[in-house]
Design a protein that fits this description.
Elements (H helix, E strand, L loop, with lengths): L7 E4 L8 E8 L4 E4 L4 E6 L9 E6 L2 E2 L3 E4 L6 E2 L1 E7 L6 E7 L7
Antiparallel strand pairs: 1-2, 1-7, 2-3, 3-6, 4-5, 7-8, 9-10
Length: about 110
């Protein structure tokens, strides 16, 4: 999965198409993610000790990872993500990093 926690993403499909947000949680087995402020669902809750008044709670629901694109930090555009192998300066070992396909910038 090419999307990680704390990435800024653009929704490219669904009811929230065109909106941007930060990835809060990633579920790699299901290929789904939770994005801040996207795919809001309402849940009716009974009063409890944690929530004495009860009421209607709003919460983000997971969306499929194919419905979002990562935003390039340099240009601010939505880009595809690729992998590149670089050699670490300190240890001299090979390391795989994510890069933007458009600008070649590391993500």
């Amino acid at each position: 999965m090419k999307i990680r926690k704390d990435d800024n993403v653009l929704v490219i499909a669904g009811n929230d198409k065109g909106n941007k947000g930060k990835v809060l949680k990633v579920y790699p087995k299901d290929n789904r993610i939770i994005v801040e402020g996207i795919n809001i669902r309402k849940r009716h809750t009974k009063p409890s000790q944690n929530n004495p008044n009860g009421g209607i709670m709003e919460k983000e629901a997971p969306i499929h990872a194919s419905n979002v694109m990562v935003i390039d930090p340099k240009s601010g555009d939505a880009v595809r993500v690729g992998k590149k192998i670089i050699i670490d300066d300190k240890s001299g070992k090979k390391k795989s990093v994510r890069v933007s396909k458009k600008s070649g910038e590391m993500l």
